[in-house]
Design brief:
The complex is a heterotrimer of chains A (about 350), B (about 290) and C (about 280). With about 350 residues, chain A is α/β, with parallel strands linked by helices. Chain A contains 15 helices and ten strands. In chain A, strands 1, 2, 3, 4, 5, 6, 7, 8, 9 and 10 form a ten-stranded mixed sheet that branches. Chain B is an all-alpha fold and about 290 residues long. Chain B has twelve helices and no strands. The radius of gyration of chain B is 25 Å and the shape is globular. Chain C is mainly α and about 280 residues long. The longest helix of chain C is centred in the first third of the chain and has 39 residues, at about 10-50. Classes of the chains: A alpha/beta (about 350), B mainly alpha (about 290), C mainly alpha (about 280).
Chain lengths: ~350, ~290, ~280
Amino acid sequence: MPRIRASLMAPLSAIALLAAACGTSSADAAGDSNANCTPAESPIVTVTAYSNVYDTYGKLISTFQSDWKEQHNDQQVQFSTSFGGSTTQAQNVVSGFPADIAALSLTPDVDLIKDAGLITHDYTQDPEGSFVASSAVVFDVRPGNPLNIQNWGDLAKPGVEILTPDPASSGGARWNIVAAYGAAMRGEVPGYAANDPADAERLLTDIFKNVTVMDKSANDSIKNFQAGNGDVAITYEYAVLAAQAQGLPDEMVIPPSTVAIQTPTVVIDKNAQAHCVQDVAAAFVDFLHTDAAKEIFTDVGYERSTDLKAAQSGEKGTFEPIDDLFTTDDLGGWDQLDKTVFGPEGAFTKALAAAQG
Amino acid sequence: MSTQTLERPAVPSPANPGTGPRRSVVLRETLARWGLRGTAILYLGLLIALPTIAVITKGFSDGLQSLKDALQAPGAREAILLTLALAGTCAIVNVIFGSLIAYVLVRYEFPGRSLLSTVVDIPFAIPTLVTGVMLRALYGPNSPIGGFLEAHGIHVIFAQLGILLALLFVTLPLVVRTVQPVLLELDEAEEEAARVLGATRWYTFRRVVLPKLRAGIAGGGLLAFARAIGEFGAVVIVSGNIIGKTLTAPVLIFQLASQFQPNEAAAVATVLFAISFVLVLITERLIGGRRAAG
Amino acid sequence: MSAVTEPRTPRLSANARRRLTHGGFIALAVAYVGILVIAPLVGIAWAALSAGLSTIWETLRQPDVLHAFYLTGVITVITVIVTSVFGVIVALVIARDRFLGRALMSAFVDLPLAVSPVIVGLMAVVLFGLGGWFEPWFSAHGIQILFALPSMVLVTIFICIPFVIREVVPVLKEVGVTEEEAARTLGASSLQTFFRVTLKNIRWGLLYGIALTTARSIGEIGAVLIVSGSITGQTETSTLYILRAFDQNQDQQGYIVAITLALVSIALLIAIEVFKNRQERLRRP
């Protein structure tokens, strides 16, 4: 009966299409994490990273790939990467982004993933506490430093236009805020009393009154600055060094007191197991702590040593020495900072409201 | 020309004598009709109605208060106002030049006329991101033209002028192809008759031509406006995202959505979406289902 | 109404004046289109070609770039198939069927045209993201929608739904049902009627709609940017590649891939013009 067949064909094909789509999806899906998995011939490892380390990780990945090929019978390991604001990348992973490794800007973002149950080991016990490199918060200024910006207090001067990213999405943004807060609290900023949270908050208010745009990632922020916006960008030291290496006119000013940016890279256990790449992922993260990798970090990435003393001294001339390089531990750790700076009554929260009000 | 429904049952003929009482033939036709209708409803319902309702619900999930709060988020009000202002400027400029181009295409014969017509359609085909990239290549600081303009204080990239150029580019064919059919339909004979009866050219234009043109021009302008408020791809490359100066609503929604603040994003999105949807509906009313000729 | 008499001056000057005005209009129109549309095309051609032919060749051979082209192709093909098949069905219903809610259906078809692509991405996040309406079901079954191909295809389909429908409906309305009824009286089945008569009548409109869908699908950026996660080599389309290239100081590669897309689009444009002309010729004999 051709007529009935014809009329049913349309809805049936609709259902068939839907089923086919679902079928293909499950084939690509993460798979049952409880099943015994057979590693693929050419495993694919997905890395989610923060925004401005694409050069560094590009080099690290290709070095690791050739090493692995030599040591594992010519096996080709593939890497898929995604770069963006650190917090956004972490939130994506929690929302289902299938990353096997998280190379993030700060540990609280790693905690986002851990709290979602995707990281099952205590990553703080990883080698070097999971930190693979260290940098510092610096100022990126125009050639000749026309506004003579030397310290955090200079950012508070009226009329200075500042670029710093949005802490809701960018890890670098939070490092910048912690650096200003910490410097004030340690009494290294003239005009702001030491150990005085109210004064630290005042510094943040004055700075954020001058912030003209908060981009969604550190990379966006410095690119915006390089495009001609603003007088100064607060950013990672290595981002400025990388720009200079490319011949851009960025000039760097290191404030006397600043925070050591310690960036963690961690295997996301649940995803790595589900994709059957936990061996390769673990091997890659281990590789990041080797001397060879550290050389790449310094060469391509210009990242200071994870050893704080060496980092502060400038490592025999590779970097400029910093008068006072402190860590988040010196300020009580991220847990403390999440409350005192970023919490509902935190210094930054109140400062931003005051600056925009 | 009338549109007939599928209700008319097939007429039994020698080749198809009918396989039973009329009822079964009607039944099969009804089944066919509902089969098609059902598919259409399912397709549109699942793919369009459902997601739209989801976003609007999300935008109002905490009631109207959340909508107000979201619109008070830093940059939201500025972004919406900037978007409306830029889109409005774009619509006005393109209505003027687009109507001119449509007029030139319809009324004049000249060498290169069909080439001009094809070039007008280019923005329909080019990806919006590529539009932004092209503008950046032409007016960016590294290009001769861009360098020249910058030296004279004219900023295109990362400034409002760049956004305006991008919007003008993508909406040009919308205006031209909306005004063209209206111009085509205008009967020159009416104009001639008015002139023969003694009307001045200006009077003819005002009383005979303009009323008919108005609907087409208004429709084109509204379409351009609606399209411009939603433009993302071209803007994101040229704009620089400076709150109050170059951050537009679609880019703001994108930032909020990618920061997983769906409520705030949905609220701004709902406002934008309501404006556009109303505009598109009005435009449909004004110009109906006319299609432009080549 | 005032009576006007043409002044008895030599016709040449009145004509010459008119021709000057007309010439002026044409020149103005051409200048506007030249500055607005042609100049940027020239700009990108210059930027891409100044990279040198070897860089161009190298870039187009990169695995990331090839995969991006491939992904764009896959998404486009699926989108074209779905929106054509179901688009024709919906067009038949809108043009031929008379039922309550037909106007509403027509409005829904137009809806994607009014929605900014970022809002479409947001829709996908609301439906399939953490805490979304459908997320629990898909998570439980291990199906990846966001940050994977399915969400990218879905948002592109949403955006492209109107094109085929809006081109086919007017054709169906104009052509009418007389040919189909004639076929039916001669004994053809519904399916035969559809393929031999209806489809033949709508073919140019359908092809025009398909060309528009293809162009739009290739160029999609806003929605896929939100739902894809931009995983290089996995969920990065051609447009996403371009965006990332500019983000990561690879401007030249960005220009090269962009001009490739532009050339493909212009080729499509020529196809669009051909189909449009054929369609117009059929509609206005």
